[in-house]
Amino acid sequence: MPGYSTRNELVPIGGHVYRLRVLSDKQQFSDPDGHGARLGISSAQWSLFGQVWPSGRLLAHAMHRFDIAGKRVLELGCGIGLASLVLQRRGADIVASDMHPLAEPFLAYNAALNALPAVHYRQLRWDVPLPALGHFDLIIASDVLYEIDQAELLAGVIDRHAYPDAEVLVTDPGRRHSGQFSRLLAARGFTVTEERCLMKDDDLPPYRGRLLHYTRIGENTAT
Predict the structure, then answer these.
(1) Where is the signal peptide (predicted)?
(2) What b/e sequence results for 28-60 when a residue is b if at least 16 CB atoms lie within 10 Å of its CB, and e otherwise?
(3) Neighbouring C-beta atoms of residue 67, cutoff 10 Å
(4) Helices 150-161, 178-186: crossing angle, 10 deg rounding
(5) HSE, side-chain direction, 13 A CA sphere, residue 137
(6) 203 by DSSP, 3-state: which?
(7) Which numeric CATH code is attached to 49-220?
(8) 49: Cβ–Cβ under 8 A, 6 or more apart, which residues?
(9) pLDDT (tens place) for every residue of the chain, 223 residues total
(10) Distance between CA atoms of 173 and 170, rounded to whole angstroms?
(11) Helices 103-113 and 82-89: crossing angle, nearest 10°?
(12) Pairing of β 120-123 and β 136-142
């Protein structure tokens, strides 16, 4: 797709260095056919999918360690797909999703760049049900709570796609809407553990980053 420039970035995760094609800067915009606009992606938001953000690195590190045995995993807002690539390398049953029109080709390119099989991808709008996507044991996302309505939308996706016994793991750089999201999931039968994390090397405690791990056992699901 014309209209953007890229660079390669090296990201070490769990002793392996991932090579990633990312957008070369955060000021790019190219939507000649209006596809992004029809999806609700503004010119200011257009380039955000194509970066390696601190919360994305944190999620990728978590997925390197996480118990994935027997679990079907969905990544929401995958962007360039770092966490999904880590899971693919581990042999996980992973589906990556995003609504940006360039997320799929960037993910496919980055999988090939790291000599990995293609990651199963679905374009997913959080406000549009997609029953064919199915259900998941683990739903993951990074820095997806930066707008006021996103907590409700994300909770709705979890309603539609999480099994009764399920886990949700979200990395967040201290956005104020994470508390609302935790309350919404508590109403759906999830319990939460929170780990404070560095977002930058020079962060000082109490760290602003959060690794939010939600767990639900089916018999505790709210009706």
Answers:
(1) none
(2) eeebeeeebeeeebeeeebbbbbbbbbbbbbbb
(3) 8
(4) 30
(5) 10
(6) coil
(7) 3.40.50.150
(8) 77, 79, 80, 98, 100, 102, 103, 106
(9) 456 789 999 999 999 999 999 999 877 767 667 666 566 666 666 678 999 999 999 999 999 999 999 999 999 999 999 999 999 999 999 999 999 989 999 999 999 999 999 999 999 999 999 999 999 999 999 999 988 899 999 999 999 999 999 999 999 998 888 999 999 999 999 999 999 888 777 777 788 889 999 999 975 554 3
(10) 10
(11) 40
(12) unpaired
In degrees, rounded to 5, the angle at the alpha carbon of residue 107 between the alpha carbons of residues 47 and 1 is 55
- Structure-token pair, residue 204: 């000082």
Domains of the chain by residue range: 49-220
Tokens 């939600």 correspond to: 214
